[in-house]
Amino acid sequence: MNTPEQTVLILGATGRFGAAATRAFAAAGWRVLAQRRQPRAGASAAANVHWLDADLSDPAALAARAAGAQVVVHAMNPAAYTDAAWRAETAGMMRAAIDIGTRLGALLLFPGNVYNFGAGMPALLQEGTPQRPTTVKGQLRVELEALLAQAHAATGLRSVVIRAGDFFGSGHGSLLDLVLAKDLRRGRVGLPGARDVATAWAYLPDLARTFERVAQQHARLEGAQVFHFSGHALNGQDWCEALAAIAREAGWLRPGKELKVAPLPWGLIRAGGLLLPSWASLAQMRYLWTTPHRLANDRLTALIGPEPHTPLPQAARQALKDLGWLADATPPKPAFAH
């Protein structure tokens, strides 16, 4: 557990990752300054979580309110999953986070993803793997990480990107509830990719605990660094088996019956993308579930030891409980994996 002097500022604390990070840091004993644009029902009421209702229009004022924070977590997201929203918002959010982190002399932590590597990415992704983005969002992600390196060169800001795969858990808005388990109560599973292609996934409570463990090392981390979070390497069959077991336990699937598999209708999504920007953005990302890849976490485990890792059956069950779909799941006790 950390001492009361350990303080973290979480920017975007009501988003899915921001909320998970708020819970992880609070549980570990940090004083958490949780920034949000406006109050929201269901926000953490832990005694060591202090809400800062403010937007990013005045980074200097927000930094003043967060005086003493040794760590800043950038957990902000654009308002929509479209190229236009990302072009309009992501750089401004990062510049505000950099401004705040610089004013505080804090370590800035940012959740990265695999968009940087593009459709030709290799099966094993390491920190030094060449980045060749093939989408607008991938190029923007490369530019955001470049801003962190530039800030270090210009002002000495220390930063860490922790790169992870597809998020799931801690609420609505992931492929789990939008695709995979959307029709689970009717005995169906949706698959964005093939049954035998394993890709990178990150259970958000595990990733949030990893951020906290990296933050514990804030005093000795220098430069603009990148670490990879391994999480889970899962294929469609892995998801089918985990979700079928949950469906049987919940009475949604009779014993001995198998889930019906419904592949994501990519042709329809591409056609719909002519009218709906969010569908067009999703269609661009199809390669993420057809190209096998996993993240090597050797640098991360050398820093923090074994990575927090909740086995898929427990993680999926708790994620469905977080969605309000299961009433009898209990929070899993995380294991650790190298």
Describe the structure.
The chain is an alpha/beta fold. The chain has helices at 16-27, 59-65, 83-104, 136-155, 175-180, 204-215, 236-250, 266-272, 277-284, 298-304, 312-322; strands at 7-11, 31-36, 49-53, 71-74, 107-112, 124-125, 158-163, 166-168, 188-191, 199-203, 224-228, 232-234, 260-263, 294-295, 307-309, 335-337. The protein is 38% helix and 20% strand. Helix 7 (236-250) crosses helix 11 and helix 8 crosses helix 9. The relative contact order is 0.13.
Short description:
The two termini are 22 Å apart. The strands form 5 sheets. Strands 3-2-1-4-5-7-11 form a 7-stranded parallel beta sheet, with helices on both faces. A 3-stranded mixed beta sheet has the order 8-10-12. Strands 6-14 form a two-stranded parallel sheet. It is of the alpha/beta class and 338 residues long.
User: How many E strands?
Assistant: 16
Strand order of the largest sheet: 3-2-1-4-5-7-11
Overall residue-averaged pLDDT value: 92
Alpha-beta classification: alpha/beta
Helical content (DSSP H or I, runs of 4+):
25-40%
Largest sheet: 7 strands, parallel
Query: How far is the N terminus from the C terminus?
Result: 22 Å
What is the radius of gyration computed over CA atoms, rounded to a whole number of angstroms? 20 Å
* Stretches with pLDDT under 50, minimum 5 residues: 329-338
Number of helices: 11
- Shape, please? globular
Please trace the helix and strand order, writing H or E for each element.
EHEEHEHEEHEEHEEHEEHEHHEHEHE
The proportion of strand residues reads: 15-25%
